[in-house]
Structure formats: structure tokens, C-alpha cells
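Record format v2
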Amino acid sequence: MHPIVKLVSQRFALGILLLFGASALIFGLTEALPGDAAQAVLGQSATPEALANLREEMGLNRPALTRYFEWLGGIVQGDLGQSLTNKLDIAESIGKRLGNTLFLACAAAVVSVPLAIFLGLLAVRYRNRWPDKLISAITLTTVSIPEFLIGYVVIYFISVKLGWFSSLAMINETMSFGQKLNAIALPAFVLTLVVLAQMMRMTRAAILNLMQSAYIETAELKGLSNFQVIARHAFPNAISPIVNVVMLNLAYLVVGVVVVEVVFVYPGMGQYLVDSVTKRDVPVVLACGVVFAAVYIGLNMVADIVSILANPRLRHPK
Amino acid sequence: MMKNIPISAAIGLFFTGLYFFIAFAAPLIAPYGMAEVVGDVWEPSSAEHLLGTDNIGRDLLTRMIYGGRTTIFIAAAATILSFVTGTSLGLLAAVMGGWADQALSRMVDLVMSIPTLILALVILAIVPVTVPILILVMGLLDATRPYRLSRSVAVDINVMDYVEAAKLRGEGRRWIIFREILPNALSPLVAEFGLRFIFMVLFISTLSFLGLGVQPPLADWGGIVKENKDGIVYGIGAALYPAVAIATLAISVNLVADWVLNRTTSLKGGRG
């Protein structure tokens, strides 16, 4: 078998394995910790009889392993169970919200990825001179402030002081694409700021690392211009680390989106998860946790597979 | 060691020290009581209330000082827990090797395959939210990173000649870990400690902001944002002071960590 096919399928299998492991970990945590769904519904002051009755009704008396496989089987078939608090079908609620979240995340990614790579290259080109230092200082500041605070700083200055966009990101199906974009402008801007700094720093580090290789020195000694060295020699080899950086940060975006959605009251997955945690709606928390974990594991897997494919040494096996 | 200290690191050390001093001496410094209502809602800053008052008329400067105390205490405790657990398991895994190393490392891979915030939210949906539980959850979930760093650094050191010599001398595992490996692995670990501390400050602030961290009436920086965020649409910036506090603390600690890391480039471990 071709080594690439072998490596890729190995990585794919590992991803599937991790996905199972993650679902077991999330389910196992809710089992192993003191307190369960029945306790969460009735609160701390519930009588033991009431608890026993509700556990019976919810089927919590059966062995954990049986319930895990039932739950897992449900997920595979797209059945995530029912919410404890409002009895709605979880899969349906998640379906709508996941679309909204992905829309927001994609909008942020479309702006931030090219910008981060451009700024990263710029910082390398002017290494240790003022553009590099300026970019470093700004990114150090943005990585030092939590996402939700960046959100409020942006709301305070852009939405309240300048009055440009609404501080609430309301969105629904009747809106046109343009209206939707307008509604998510601020949260997407905040997410861009959050991942831009990380991505740019990692791009800069990846390329700088590369620039110290012997063949780059050779190219420089040959008398090529700075730009030619970067474009012809450094960039092709930098694709793999850069794609890796981008994917890792998109995975990070998935987490950042949780907090940003809460700030802007955006009807997405993050808001749903946080609400359900507050209400101790365990089935919804489990379902959201698994969806977030799946997206995160999936993006990490794609990152690894792309870097395997982009490695020229693997494309031409001896 | 204190000679040749770069200006950026000196600034970082000064501000980090200042924040820790304020955290320790909060009851002495704060002008009012932590939960004392002393004025109107969202008063602008004045001589009596340097930063104004908050959403129910408490002195904001007092809340910020006590908030810093809570935030820094929780973050420091969680970081220490995470480092003690992570490093001891990491060093043990590196020295023992074999199935123990495999089992621990695969377990860590699994935990790291899920975003920490998501995992923490799942746990906090079940357990009651109290300060000791928060420290435990944050510390244990984040122990994966010191584990990976200490293991990777220790695996490199473990094959050095002087460790080999100690093994041939018949030294026990305890000696190898504490007298041979740990002193040589300390520098990257100290730098990482600073970065993890920052992460913990951001983490606890985020949890409190989401209403799943420090519970009122206790003050903490994330909670102050949550309490005062409704003022923002009226142009009241009370919720933004924690941003300044968190950012300056984070940048100061970062400057110190960078300096520690740069002092020993030969043993640079993985970061992040």
C-alpha cells in the first residue's frame, strides 16, 4: 500500500477512536460524579422517594453501560433524546443552532485566515523591525484579554459610542443574507480578533523556524531577493505548518464561539450549552458536549491529514 | 541572576508583584467593605469612589481589589494543583516508560481531544459550583499540559550520560527524579507555570462571566463584568475595568515568563 494511504487511514481510524473515547469520557463523567439528572431536576432538597421514582421513570436504574450504548446508538441515528426542562427534541434544537454557529464561525474564518497569514508573512519579512514589533505588541494584548471582554470593549466603543452596529446579534430565517451578515458583523469581528492573534503568532513562528533551515541560507547566499526567498523557497514548505496552524485555530474558534455567543445573545450552540448547564439539563449538555468535541476532533484530524498530504517527502517514496 | 535583567522583565516582575501584593493585602487597601452598598447605582468616578459605583451601588474600586484577590487566589491554587499533578505524573511516566507511560499518555491525549472549556461545562452541569470544586476541576483538567511538557523534557534528560551514571551508581527512582531530572527541567517548567497561570485567570474569569464560576456576593473579575454588563449599552464602562486588570496582569506575567524561557534556550520545551 502507498505510504500516504496508510498514514491517512491510520490517522482517520485514530480520529474515529478518539471520537468514541471522547463520547465515553463525557458520558462517564456525568455518571461518575456525584449527582445525576434526577437530582438535577428535583434539586438538593428532594426526598429520597421522589428521587427513586424519577430515576425509575427516566430509566436511570439500569446499568450505566447499557445506557451508554443506547445513548451512543441514538446519536449515530441522529436521535439525541429529549430536553429535561422543556421536553423538546434535542436534535431539532441543535440542528437550527448549529447552522447559526457555523455561519458565524465561517464568517470569522473567511476574514481571519487570509489576514493572519498575510500579517504573519509581513512580520517575518520585517522581522525585529517596527512592523513586526507593532504586530507582536498588538497580538500580545489581544491574547491577554478573555474573549468576552474583547466583546464588551468592542460593543462599548463601536456599538454604543459610534452607534454603528447593534449590540445584539439577532438572527432568524426570514432575514436576507445581507441582513444576516450585518447582524453578525460585531461577533464575527470579535472572533476574528481572538483567533487572528493566535494564528498570526503561530504562522510567524512556523515560517521563522523554516527560515533557519540550511537551504534558505543557500538561497540567500545565491543572491536571491528577500521576497524571492520567501515566495519560492520558504512558502511551498510552509504550507503544511500553516495549514496546521489554521486548522488548530479553527478548532479554537469553536470554543471561542461559546463565549462570544453569550455576549451578543446570539442563538447558537454555545448559548444553548451555557443555558443548559445553568439549568442542569444533563441530556442537552451531553449532546452539545459531544457535538463540540466532534467538531474539534474532526478539525484536528483534517489538520493532521492535510499536513501528511502536503509533505513532499511522503509523496515520493523511495 | 538579578544582574542583566532586561527592562521588560523588570516591568513585568514589578506589576506581577504589585498585583499579588494587592491580592494579599486587599482588606487593608480596599476603601470600603467588599459587599457594602455605599452609594447610588453606577455613580461616575469621584473623590469618594475613584472608579465610581457598580450596578447595586457598591464601590467599584473595592470590588476590583477584592475581585483580584479571588481571581488570583483561585488561579494560583488551580495552577499549583495542575503543576503538582501534571509534573509528578509526567516525570514518573518518563522515568518508568513502558505500559505506565503508554496508559497515562493515551489518557491525556483523550482528555486533550476535548476543549477544556467544554469539558469543564459538562462537569459543572452536574456538580455544585463552589470555590474548592472550581479549583479542582480547573486544576485537574489543565494538568494535561504540564504533564506533556514535563514528560517530553524528562524523556530527553533521562537518556543523558549523567542520569545513566546515576542509574549505574544504583540510585533509586526518587533520586533520579528529584536530584537529576527536575533541576534540569525546571526552567521550561517555570516559564510554562506563568503561561498556565494566565490561562487560569482567563479561564476562571470566563466561567464566572458565564455564571458558572465564583458566585455572588463574592467579587471576582469575571463576575464584575457579568454584574455590570447591562450598563454598557447606556455608555457606562464599569464592566470594562476588569479588562484592563486582566490584560495588565497577563502581559506582566508573560514578560516574566518570556525572560525565564529565553535565559535557557537550550532546554526549550513545548509551549502553549
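Chain B has eleven helices and no strands.
Chain B touches chain A at residues 109-111, 113-119, 121-128, 198, 202, 205-206, 209-212, 222, 225, 229, 232-235, 237, 239-240, 242-243, 246-247, 250-251, 254 (CB under 8 Å).
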